[in-house]
Amino acid sequence: MVNLSRFDLNLLRVFDAVFEWNGVSSAARHLNLSQPAVSHALAKLRAELSDPLFVRQGNRLVPTPVANTIAVPVREALRRIETALASTTTFAPEHSTREFRIGIRATGETPRFSSLFTRVRDKAPNVRLASISFRRRDVYRLLASGECDVIIDIDLPHDDRLCRERLTSEPMAVVARFDHPAVRAGLSLETYLAADHVVASPRPRGAGLEDTVLGQAGLQRRIVARCQHAFTACQIVAGTDLFCTLPRRHAESIAQAWPLAMFDLPITVPANPVTVYWHRDSSTDPGNVWLRAQIARG
What we know:
This protein is of the alpha/beta class. Helix 5 links the parallel strand 3 (about 100-105) and strand 4. The N and C termini lie far apart (about 50 Å). Helix 1 packs across helix 3 (about 35-50), helix 1 packs across helix 4 (about 65-85) and helix 5 (about 105-125) crosses helix 10 (about 250-255). It contains eleven helices and twelve strands. It folds into three domains: about 5-75, Arc Repressor Mutant, subunit A; about 100-170 and about 275-295, Periplasmic binding protein-like II (D-Maltodextrin-Binding Protein, domain 2, 3-Layer(aba) Sandwich), CATH 3.40.190.10; about 170-270, Periplasmic binding protein-like II (D-Maltodextrin-Binding Protein, domain 2), CATH 3.40.190.10. The longest helix has 22 residues, at about 65-85.
């Protein structure tokens, strides 16, 4: 049993960094410590816990079962301590050098991240932003551990441990090449259904909301290509007669880079809600509060 009254909590920061960065050298750079200092701290923690914690496989340190067991609780505990200390201070954006990590999926990054960076840069020139890809099943873990400060996504199932704020609802739009002969007089449902379509989604399969609505009406569009990224889909659209259906704000952003025409989706589809999530422990963190205010501005 570890005696907390004699335990050096700084050892946990070292453990967390070695676990995250898969090595002593990388952890040392992250912590701004020397490699010998990190190695010494890791040796002390191994002695305290009577476990090697990491074993070498090739060029990597691989965590032992004990390390895997304590990794998430340690990360969450460190996160809570940092948040508690942060809540006692003020946040001065013009002087801050903090890095904010924002979970955002590829379909939301293009229309949101660049405009957010511009707003943040204007008010906090030394603050750094990082866009982090994530899986929806990991949302709580990423926010609880501090790997993400906030996450921006669609409406997700309710979780009492997380806070949320609805940002906006995104209507859908259709993009086609600017000189597409079938849409010179506008886009009708008949034209939409007669065309071939490219879908942009990180998922390997599955229908979009527009396909669900079409199916409820006994209709179906013809999908001939599926891409992971909307930019790739729009590159295809710009050189073919295919259509691509995207959230309007996303379509507007990409249409600035490609010769594309944009139309209202000729069926009524519920707008996609966009929501920002954060851990309850971060609710009083002045920096997190400030970041969420910047995100809410658009």
